[in-house]
TrEMBL record:
This is Uncharacterized protein. The chain crosses the membrane at residues 6-24, 45-66, 72-90, 97-121. Keywords: Membrane, Transmembrane, Transmembrane helix.
Length: 150
């Protein structure tokens, strides 16, 4: 790995790492809670949640491999495989447009898998957000009505 590639990787992780960590931590907590509630294995529950990120990662890899769709379709004569490659190409195009959501999604699911395997974040407290619409509604309910005296 060259210095440039290392710098790109560090920048990539600095941008997407925090969001992926927050998503992965939340997902790991919910998987542990579901496993406790249902009495099943947390790893078994998490394994089912890895299919979509695997498809997104595969489609991004296919789409941004540097080859055109026609080159990929020339490799096979099967209509079914051509349809699957075309669907992955389309999915990769959409994931490429939604890059800033797709990458933390895939990295977050990978982090959640590691967290579930090691038993991290089993006992997180649910902390509702104080910002956003819920916080606005609470502040509005506490506010006094304004007088329309002129």
């Amino acid at each position: 790995m060259t210095i440039f590639e290392g710098a790109v990787l560090a920048l990539f992780l600095a941008i997407f790492g925090p969001l992926a960590f927050l998503y992965g931590r939340s997902l790991a907590h919910h998987v542990h809670a579901q496993a406790r509630r249902d009495g099943g294995s947390a790893l078994r529950i998490m394994a089912a949640k890895l299919l979509l990120p695997a498809l997104v990662a595969l489609s991004l890899t296919l789409r941004f491999s540097g080859s055109e769709l026609d080159e990929w379709l020339a490799w096979t004569a099967s209509g079914t495989l051509c349809a699957a490659i075309s669907a992955l190409w389309l999915m990769g195009s959409i994931a490429g447009i939604l890059f800033f959501a797709a990458i933390p999604f895939v990295l977050g699911r990978c982090f959640a898998l590691i967290a579930v395997a090691f038993g991290w974040f089993q006992h997180l407290e649910h902390q509702p957000s104080r910002s956003g619409a819920a916080g606005f509604r609470e502040r509005a309910a506490r506010a006094e009505p304004e007088d329309d005296e002129g």
